[in-house]
Structures are given as C-alpha cells and as structure tokens.
Write a structure and sequence with these properties.
This protein has 225 residues and is mainly alpha-helical. The chain has 2 domains: 1-32; 38-221, Ferritin, core subunit, four-helix bundle (Ferritin), CATH 1.20.1260. Helices cover 68% and strands 2% of the residues. It has 7 helices and 2 strands. It has a two-stranded antiparallel ribbon. The longest helix is centred in the first third of the chain and has 31 residues, at 2-32.
C-alpha cells in the first residue's frame, strides 16, 4: 500500500512538472515561428544555384521591401533627430540596407526574379506616421516601428538560412541576418524601445506583406543587366 502511494505521488509530481514546461514550450514555439510565406504560384524552379522555392522568392522580395522603407527612414533620422543614438541608428540603417539592396539586385538578376520597386501600403503608412510626428514623439515612433519590424523579420531570416537549398538565397540570408541583428542592437542602444509594446504587434508582417509577381503596371520591376 505504501509503495503504491509513493508511486502515485511521484507520478502526480512528474505530471505537474511537465505541464508548465509543455505550455512554456508552446508559447516559445509560437513566438519563434516565422511569418508564413506567400506562394507566388511559380512552384519550385531549377536554377544554377540550386532549387528556388516560393519561400525563397518571398524572402528575396521581403529583403527588398525592407530597404524600400528603412532606407528613407534612416536618412530621415539622420536629418531630423538631435539625439546621437538616433542619428547613429539612422546611419546603420542606411549603410546596412544600401548594401543589402545591392545584394538583392544581384540575387534577383541571377535568379531571374521580379522584385518590388516601391514600399508596400503598410510601409508607406509607417513613413507617413513618422513624417507627421515631431520631436521626442518622432524619435520614439522611429525606434518602435523599426525595432518591431526587425524583430518580426529576424525569425524569417533564420528559417530561410536553415532551410533553403539555393546558394544565392542562403548567402543573402547570411548577410541579412548580420544586418538585422546590427540594426536591432543600435535601435535598442537608444534606450527608447518599449519592449512591452513590441508584444502588441498589429496584424501584418513587417517589413511589408509580399505580393506575387504582377503585371508591368504593378510596383514590381525586373532588374536590368
């Protein structure tokens, strides 16, 4: 009888320990899940650099989209802010996305991809918000919008880097990972990040919702050689 009681108590304790671990793991898994890629209908394509999946193409377009709003945001911060930390963050955004944009152009040309040539409506909305903001409100908005966007894309970069079989996309993901981490670091160094506010992310996937390749009248272009 005593043995049965001991075994039962141990089993109950084990269950009690496992339940919160499973719940905690579930929350972490959800938080770390990268945004779902949009299927452009092109299927898996054969290239000289390895298979090119819809997820690969979606990633390349997202990197391009990031530069289309973060470059002007960085330039604006350098011009408008009086805080050295904000101006430094702006410099890093400009430098990082200038190089990433150059890399995206190379990759998209090599892979024969169409890429966006203007920010998404969501991204333009963020730029408009910053245009209207003044003084400390502008600086807080700049840091929060950019930090939130980089946090969202970080999981996607890691996922693509781990899973892609295309060497061009893999190299771009490596570059993007280093750039995103650098930008997160300098934004946080400003001391203005509201980490509680980062959890209240509105619907949408920064740095913009990708679209499938569209007709010539769309905001997409094919890089020229």
């Amino acid at each position: 009888m005593a043995t049965g009681v001991v075994i039962g108590a141990l089993a109950f304790t084990l269950i009690a320990l496992l339940i919160p671990v499973q719940k905690f793991g579930g929350r972490n898994a959800a938080a770390a899940t990268a945004p779902a890629a949009e299927d452009d209908g092109g299927g898996i394509q054969t290239t000289a650099f390895g298979p090119l999946t819809p997820q690969d193409r979606d990633f390349v377009r997202k990197v391009r989209l990031a530069g289309l709003w973060e470059l002007p945001a960085g330039r604006q911060a350098m011009q408008r802010s009086t805080r050295p930390a904000i101006r430094t963050a702006g410099e890093h955004l400009v430098e990082g996305h200038t190089e990433l944009d150059r890399r995206v152009m190379e990759v998209s040309q090599a892979l024969g991809m169409e890429i966006p040539n203007q920010p998404s409506a969501q991204q333009q909305g963020w730029l408009d918000q910053m245009d209207r903001a003044q003084g400390p409100q502008y600086e807080q908005l700049f840091v929060q919008l950019l930090r939130r966007a980089h946090g969202k894309v970080f999981a996607l970069v890691a996922q693509i880097r781990a899973q892609t079989r295309n060497s061009m996309v893999r190299a771009l993901a490596t570059d993007a990972n280093n750039t995103v981490l650098d930008h997160i670091t300098v934004l946080e160094a400003s001391g203005l990040v509201d980490f509680d506010g980062l959890a209240d992310t509105p619907p949408g996937t920064p740095p913009g919702t990708p679209s499938a390749p569209a007709p010539a009248s769309s905001p997409y272009s094919r890089p020229t050689k």
